[in-house]
Amino acid sequence: MDHFDFIAPLYDRLTATPDRARYQKMLNLPCAGRLLDAGGGTARVSTLLRDMIGQVVVNDLSHHMLKRAGKKKVQPVRSLVEQLPFADQTFERILIVDALHHFKNQQRSIHELLRVLKSGGRLAIEEYDLNHRAVKLLALAEKVMGMRSRFLRPAEIQAMMGSNCISTKIEHLNRNTAWIIADKN
């Protein structure tokens, strides 16, 4: 059984309550259209944003996480982020919260996310910053637990965006977490 299938029943109770205003700002919401929550698990964050965008799609590999997400009035889709089952330019907004380090091929994932992001759309990634000791310890703990996580520095994630974006920026909201925000050409 996958780690996330195992923790799915407790996940929403074990994680902190998301700051709706922060996600609204980072995604530049409200916005008409569709939001993809990539690696979104139980939809604990994107559920809070449903009233600010037309439709929310949660993509994850964990069947048990998606089962919980489906009860929250979002559309669950099970697939690898590296092989999204969506047409080009499907989403106005894409969100990744604390999940990029779990994606098997991060470069391919970002390429695929930018493919399904509409021109003028925004990709916002909240990820732990490997520049900090606490995150290095977290990375080690996940390895010990048998997870195949691969944490990156924010500048490495930003560099993966390539020339597909009008602008990219990094914002640090606390000591261990960074936002990498990209607006697509």
SSE layout:
Elements: H1 3-14, H2 20-27, E1 34-38, E2 55-60, H3 63-70, E3 75-78, E4 91-97, H4 106-116, E5 117-128, H5 133-144, H6 154-160, E6 165-172, E7 177-184
Parallel strand pairs: 1-2, 1-4, 2-3, 4-5
Antiparallel strand pairs: 5-7, 6-7
How would you describe the overall organization of this protein?
This protein has 185 residues and is of the alpha/beta class. The chain is built from six helices and seven strands; from the N terminus they run ααββαββαβααββ. The protein has helices spanning 3-14, 20-27, 63-70, 106-116, 133-144, 154-160, and strands at 34-38, 55-60, 75-78, 91-97, 117-128, 165-172, 177-184. Strands 3-2-1-4-5-7-6 form a seven-stranded mixed beta sheet, sandwiched between helices. Helix 1 (3-14) runs parallel beside helix 3 (63-70). It starts with a helix and ends with a strand. Residues 5-12 have low confidence and may be disordered.
